[in-house]
């Protein structure tokens, strides 16, 4: 706890973190509210798939474009501009709904804009962290960022469900728009400039990252783990529908178990030091996290399956925190924006692959095969990490 308090005493980090947390809770409400609006349309159920495409596919395009912006301009300005644009985009729904003129295509357009800009804060905030805290506090700062994601995953959807019954989905999106304005305000209050470390950045960041074996193996390991997590996203509703009692309530409990595990794991990891061998530390949690997928075979025991979901979250959170600190130390500061945008885009991009991989297995009721594939895909890269030496740091610590 002392480590977290030390980090939060840094005023600029505290402001940006609080604003990001509020915005992430708003993000957790967005898809629920948009889905409810689409379901109210004619043929709404079939349109949910289109909404999902609009919500996720632009993330890849936006992620590739946002990195150069973060490395060329002050990150505060980029985060403020992103928050204002998304606030306006989301606010178009409650404004047009209030006058009875909301077109049916608008939720899909808002979802596409949201997806296109999603990587701005996902890359911008971690790219700013090294400039806001001491190097010895990187794990704690990254843990606080991870805690924000976990809290948002638990609070946002539940809050949206409650508010929809009171103020409707358009009203929920008005609250969401306000959360973006909060983030814009807190970013504007950050006093320390977050301009590029050097105006003449390296011309070929991809080539530079490609020469760092540690960055490559950790990125591939996380891409593989996210394939397994993408499979889990499809497996969870399938289990709730076909294998476990309780229906939708069980599905909510399973997803909440993962988020709760992530929260606990992040809280623990932020107080741990991994300077001597961060790769080994990552591997030592990735391997048991992969084995936790085998608890899906404990159906119809809700407790055992829920424990599997909890363990996946508990053990994957430290992986994320330690790997992010490792990247911050190895990647030169002038490349942080492009590097984090690129790496997070690559890692997020494998989630749909996992969903596609799990679907035919579950259609044929092959849960054992799905759980085994998840374990192997997530675990084998962890074993590979044990064979790689951390090597020397890049020049980021010198800039």
Automatic annotation (TrEMBL):
The keyword Transport applies. Gene3D superfamilies: MFS general substrate transporter like domains (1.20.1250.20). It is found in: Cell membrane. Pfam families: MFS_3. Keywords: Cell membrane, Membrane, Transmembrane, Transmembrane helix, Transport. The chain crosses the membrane at residues 16-38, 50-70, 77-99, 105-132, 144-164, 170-190, 214-240, 246-269, 367-388. It is a multi-pass membrane protein. Coiled coil: none annotated. CDD domains: MFS_MefA_like (cd06173). InterPro entries: MFS_trans_sf, TM_effector. The keyword Membrane applies. PANTHER family: INTEGRAL MEMBRANE EFFLUX PROTEIN-RELATED, STAPHYLOFERRIN A TRANSPORTER. This is MFS transporter. It comes from Lentzea indica. The lineage of its organism: Bacteria, Bacillati, Actinomycetota, Actinomycetes, Pseudonocardiales.
């Amino acid at each position: 706890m002392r480590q977290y308090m030390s980090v939060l005493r840094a005023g600029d980090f505290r402001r940006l973190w609080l604003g990001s947390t509020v915005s992430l809770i708003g993000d957790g409400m967005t898809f629920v509210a948009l889905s409810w609006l689409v379901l109210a349309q004619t043929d709404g159920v079939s349109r949910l798939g289109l909404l999902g495409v609009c919500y996720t596919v632009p993330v890849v395009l936006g992620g590739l474009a946002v990195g150069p912006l973060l490395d060329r301009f002050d990150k505060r300005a980029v985060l403020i501009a992103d928050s204002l644009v998304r606030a306006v985009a989301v606010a178009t729904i409650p404004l047009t709904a209030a006058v009875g003129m909301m077109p049916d295509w608008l939720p899909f357009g808002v979802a596409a804009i949201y997806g296109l800009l999603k990587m701005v804060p996902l890359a911008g905030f971690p790219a700013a962290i090294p400039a806001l805290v001491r190097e010895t506090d990187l794990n704690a700062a990254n843990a606080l960022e991870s805690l924000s994601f976990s809290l948002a995953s638990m609070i946002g959807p539940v809050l949206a469900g409650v508010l929809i019954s009171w103020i409707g989905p358009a009203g929920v999106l008005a609250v969401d728009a306000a959360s973006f304005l909060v983030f814009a305000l807190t970013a504007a209050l950050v006093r320390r400039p977050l301009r590029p470390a050097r105006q003449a950045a390296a011309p070929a960041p991809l080539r530079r990252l490609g020469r760092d074996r540690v960055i490559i193996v950790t990125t591939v390991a996380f891409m593989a783990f996210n394939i397994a997590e993408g499979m889990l996203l499809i497996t969870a509703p399938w289990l709730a529908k076909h294998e476990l009692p309780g229906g939708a309530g069980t599905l909510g409990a399973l997803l909440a178990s993962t988020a709760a595990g992530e929260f606990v794991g992040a809280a623990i990891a932020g107080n741990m030091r991994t300077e001597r061998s961060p790769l080994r530390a990552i591997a030592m949690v990735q391997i048991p996290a992969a084995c936790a997928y085998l608890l899906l075979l404990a159906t119809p025991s809700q407790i055992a399956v829920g424990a599997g979901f909890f363990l996946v979250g508990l053990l994957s959170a430290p992986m994320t925190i330690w790997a992010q600190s490792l990247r911050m130390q190895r990647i030169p500061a002038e490349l942080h924006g492009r590097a984090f945008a690129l790496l997070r885009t690559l890692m997020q991009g494998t989630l749909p692959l996992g969903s596609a991989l799990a679907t035919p297995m579950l259609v044929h009721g092959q849960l054992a095969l799905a759980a085994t594939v998840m374990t192997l895909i997530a675990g084998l890269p962890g074993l590979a990490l044990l064979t790689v030496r951390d090597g020397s740091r890049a020049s980021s610590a010198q800039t």
